[in-house]
Structure formats: C-alpha cells, structure tokens
Design brief:
This protein is mostly beta strands and 51 residues long. It has 1 helix and 3 strands, in the order H-E-E-E. It has a domain of 34 residues. A 3-stranded antiparallel β-sheet has the order 2-1-3, with no helix packed on it. The longest helix is centred in the first third of the chain and has 4 residues. InterPro entries: DUF7129 (IPR055553).
Length: 51
C-alpha cells in the first residue's frame, strides 16, 4: 500500500505555527507576529522539521 505522507503530516517549512509562552494562544502565519495579539507576551515558532 502506498501512503502519501503529505496526507499524514502536511508540514511545510514555509509555514509557521506560533504559540504564546503565557496564554498559549496559537496562530498560523508565514511571518512572526512578534508578540501575542491577546496578551502582548513573547511568541515562539513551534513548527519543527520532521524527517
């Protein structure tokens, strides 16, 4: 059986998933928002490459 891995894990390196370190708000963007739009704290890119 052939499995298309993109169906299982649609990760692409140009896609960023950002999460606030305080309130855990998440946002899907192509560029960093800099700070959380909800509480103003630091956000981090939680997208990781997978091999």
């Amino acid at each position: 059986m052939n499995t298309n891995h993109a169906d299982i894990d649609p990760y692409t390196p140009s896609t960023g998933y950002y999460e606030c370190v305080s309130c855990t708000y998440r946002e899907h963007r192509t560029d960093s928002p800099g700070t959380c739009p909800h509480c103003g704290d630091t956000v981090r890119n939680i997208a990781v490459s997978r091999e």
